[in-house]
């Protein structure tokens, strides 16, 4: 696709139209109440929540796309000034409320940007999404897939959300005299909270801004801001620390629950406060996995992190098996991960290259505008460290990873590349501006 036409979850570049997959902050960096670069497409739910997240935003810029209803956009080529027709189909990503995938089709071929997604195997809404996708593609192949690679490692195996939600309820029912605090973000995990509310027949306390979001989502009956009405509170995820849970327990017996797909490690238990840095989680995690021989099994049941704290594998992102299934029927020619900020994410090609049609057509090698050394190092380092974290005894064939890549003379040494440089790249990779060159860096 020609440069300057479309941007997805990327807000600082100049394009004719912009697409927002969902309202999590790592997808809105650069989007502000005063942003006004062009039309912004999103789901009806995202549009409804927009004024809460961006008060004063010019809502005339917002265009609503319904899932499964293709729209044709007429854009203008910057180079030839001729019309460029782009058909876009939105598909439910089954991530947080309002999250969409976007399929773009045109003379450039077909490109699917998943945003964050969780398509559980057997989930009827995921099946519906799959049918929309396959119908929109027709007999055409998917040329390029930008995919949520948060858990793109076989180590990540966790249960469907319904199972994890019941695990949370089971913890609660087995502690009838305790209060509970559950760490959540500004958006997401509503189904978990609703399940708890229904099963325990109780309202759930949320902070005032979260209550406003719940009202806009139509869930007001199950939530309250009055602490006296309930023993279950959903609190901002960042506020849950060992210190806070310990001080809560000086007043009332309280258990903290962290719904997350991320690994948590033993060293953590010795620390006073929690950090949500995935980097430290993985590093600390390596100890417990090495000591106990645990692998992915550890994610399938609640883990006790502290005397008063459990982690439950409730994830809004697809686990590895689900990603694998997704790729089998999408069968893209090329693939690229969209997540680079989380430590444990891995270039999807490492484990899933065999599910791409053009296995040799490596984006990493082909389109990275000469930054091949960094690109390859990112992959090699991520795989090595993440596998190490999960106790995977695996030799990474670095020469295999490098095969076909030409390093620039000024590229950093592949294996000696500085972590700070890699981190810098990771921060910048999120979001994509689609153009004829790959614009990951
Ligand atoms: Zn998200």
Radius of gyration: 22 Å
User: What is the overall number of helices?
Assistant: 14
DSSP E strands, number: 18
Domain count, please report it: 2
Which molecules are bound besides the chains? zinc ion
CATH homologous superfamily designation of the largest domain: Ribonuclease Z/Hydroxyacylglutathione hydrolase-like
For the biggest sheet, the summary is: 6 strands, mixed
CATH topology of the largest domain: Metallo-beta-lactamase, Chain A
Strands in their spatial order, largest beta sheet: 5-6-7-8-9-17
Set down the secondary structure blueprint.
Layout: E1 6-8, E2 17-19, E3 40-42, H1 44-53, E4 62-64, E5 71-76, E6 83-92, E7 100-106, E8 109-113, H2 124-137, E9 144-147, H3 161-173, E10 179-184, H4 190-200, E11 204-205, H5 208-217, E12 223-224, E13 232-236, H6 242-248, E14 254-259, H7 266-269, H8 278-292, E15 303-306, E16 309-312, H9 320-330, E17 334-337, H10 349-352, H11 363-366, H12 372-389, H13 398-402, H14 419-429, E18 432-434
Parallel strand pairs: 1-2, 2-3, 3-4, 8-9, 9-17, 10-13, 10-14, 11-12, 14-16
Antiparallel strand pairs: 1-18, 5-6, 6-7, 7-8, 15-16
Helix pairs in contact: 1-5, 3-4, 8-12
């Amino acid at each position: 696709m020609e440069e300057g036409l479309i941007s997805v979850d990327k807000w600082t570049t100049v394009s004719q139209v912009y697409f927002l997959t969902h309202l999590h902050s790592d997808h809105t960096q650069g989007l502000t109440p005063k942003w006004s670069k062009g039309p912004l497409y999103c789901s009806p739910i995202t549009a409804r929540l927009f004024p809460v997240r961006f008060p004063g935003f010019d809502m005339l810029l917002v265009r609503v796309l319904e899932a499964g209803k293709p729209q044709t956009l007429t854009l203008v080529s910057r180079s030839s000034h001729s019309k460029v027709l782009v058909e876009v189909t939105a598909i439910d990503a089954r991530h947080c409320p309002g999250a969409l995938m976007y399929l773009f089709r045109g003379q450039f071929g077909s490109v699917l940007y998943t945003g964050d997604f969780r398509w559980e195997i057997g989930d009827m809404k995921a099946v519906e999404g799959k049918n929309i996708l396959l119908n929109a593609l027709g007999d055409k192949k998917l040329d390029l897939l930008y995919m949520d690679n948060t858990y793109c490692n076989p180590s990540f195996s966790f249960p469907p959300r319904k199972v994890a939600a019941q695990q949370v309820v089971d913890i609660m029912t087995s502690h009838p005299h305790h209060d509970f605090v559950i760490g959540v973000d500004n958006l997401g995990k509503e189904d978990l909270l609703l399940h708890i509310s229904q099963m325990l027949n109780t309202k759930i306390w949320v902070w005032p801004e979260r209550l406003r979001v719940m009202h806009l989502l139509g869930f007001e009956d199950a939530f309250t801001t009055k602490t006296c009405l309930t023993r279950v509170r959903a609190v901002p995820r960042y506020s849950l620390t060992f210190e806070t849970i310990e001080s809560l327990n000086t007043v009332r017996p309280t258990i903290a629950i962290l719904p997350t797909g991320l690994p948590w490690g033993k060293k953590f238990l010795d620390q006073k406060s929690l950090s949500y840095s995935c980097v430290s989680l993985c590093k600390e995690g390596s100890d417990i996995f090495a000591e106990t021989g645990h692998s992915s099994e550890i994610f399938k049941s609640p883990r006790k992190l502290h005397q008063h704290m459990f982690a439950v594998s409730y994830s809004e992102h697809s686990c590895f098996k689900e990603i694998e299934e997704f790729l089998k029927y999408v069968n893209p020619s090329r693939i690229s991960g969209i997540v680079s900020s989380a430590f444990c994410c891995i270039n999807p090609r490492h484990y899933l290259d065999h599910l791409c049609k053009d296995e040799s057509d490596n984006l990493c090698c082909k389109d990275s505008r000469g930054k091949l050394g960094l690109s390859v190092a990112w992959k090699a380092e991520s795989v090595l460290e993440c596998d190490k974290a999960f106790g995977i005894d695996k030799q990474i064939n670095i020469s295999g990873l490098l095969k076909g890549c030409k390093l620039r003379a000024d590229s950093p040494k592949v294996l000696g590349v500085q972590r700070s440089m890699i981190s810098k790249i990771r921060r910048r990779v999120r979001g994509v501006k689609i153009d004829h060159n790959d614009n990951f860096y």
